[in-house]
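To: structure desk
From: M.T.
Subject: fold request, one chain
Message: Could you run this one when you get a chance? Sequence is below, nothing fancy, just the single chain.
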Amino acid sequence: MHIVAPETGKKYVEKRRVRFTEPGQPRELTFSCYRRYPFFGRDRTREWFCQALDQARRKFAYEPWAYVVMPEHIHVIVYPADDPEQMSAFLQMVKSRSPAKRIKQPE
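Reply: Done. Structure tokens follow.
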């Protein structure tokens, strides 16, 4: 949805999402890179994402059922087992670990 900022007159996109956390149900997560930058267009950055997903999976005891990594966005289906309330912390860990390596190890 395009919105115009009244102060500047610039258009921006506001994503409207509703997240549902049901105990015992898998979750579909989708997130995109900043300004649709193709951050995951290289093998190395895709590997960093997979490592971050694995670290978060072990920490939170979640089961990733499937994931698709595209150049500018990612889809993950994850089963949160007994602790679905930690989903935002899980997602934050996955999303923050991949870019952190990029900043520390420039190409």
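Reply (cont.): The chain has two helices and five strands. Let me know if you need anything else for the meeting.
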